[in-house]
Amino acid sequence: MNYWSGKVAIVTGASRGIGLAISKELAKYGINVIGLARSMDELVETSLMIGEYFFPFQCDVTDEDEILVAFKFIEEKFGGVDILVNNAGIINYIHVMDSETDEIHNVINTNLIAPAILAREAIQSMRRRYAAGHIINITGITGLYCEAVSVPMGIYGPSKFGLKGLGIELRHEISQYKLKIKVTTINPGFVRTDMSKQLNSFMKVSPEVLLNDRDIADAVIYALGTPKSVEISEITVLPHCLGSDAILL
Question: Which residues are catalytic?
Fold first, then answer.
């Protein structure tokens, strides 16, 4: 991880949950973290919590203009970005067949289109500087094993499945141009966050099947810490459930 000290990372959805945990861990290694989120108040709280290596930047990732403004800020202040963690995501527990079109658009825009735009801009920044970089996409087992999840999650699963596909496509393109950029997809099981609390509206979820946000942050650090000659294409993080009372979703 010493290589990344002093480098620049973007973390989306940085003010809470998994994004907050990832931001904390990156900052421990002296990485300058530009945390993107919609609430500036929450970002300021995060900045006070993490300290000098965290830089709050208000950004709605569904608005391309706001993404481009964020990248302009990073280029002017830091010279470019070296790490991108596409973490921001939303879910609605509405069947696709009952969804309004704008609800479908909102999930797809947040979970798939925004990461594609962010990855495009980050790779262009790395490419201009001939820099080594890393793109990390946080998906989920809902996108990896849609058939195994019976809880209705609407377009969420397909959007996360698409995010996994985005990582594969980026890796192909990067390989074609022989860029020094790695791409890792991280598939967490259900994590103890505000999003997972909504599951209890549909079924009782045993605490044993919920990961901690720190578990996903550790996976990010592991992927980043590999030697230059090693690329971790995909990590699936599941809880190690003990006892017959655990419910595996």
Answer: 156
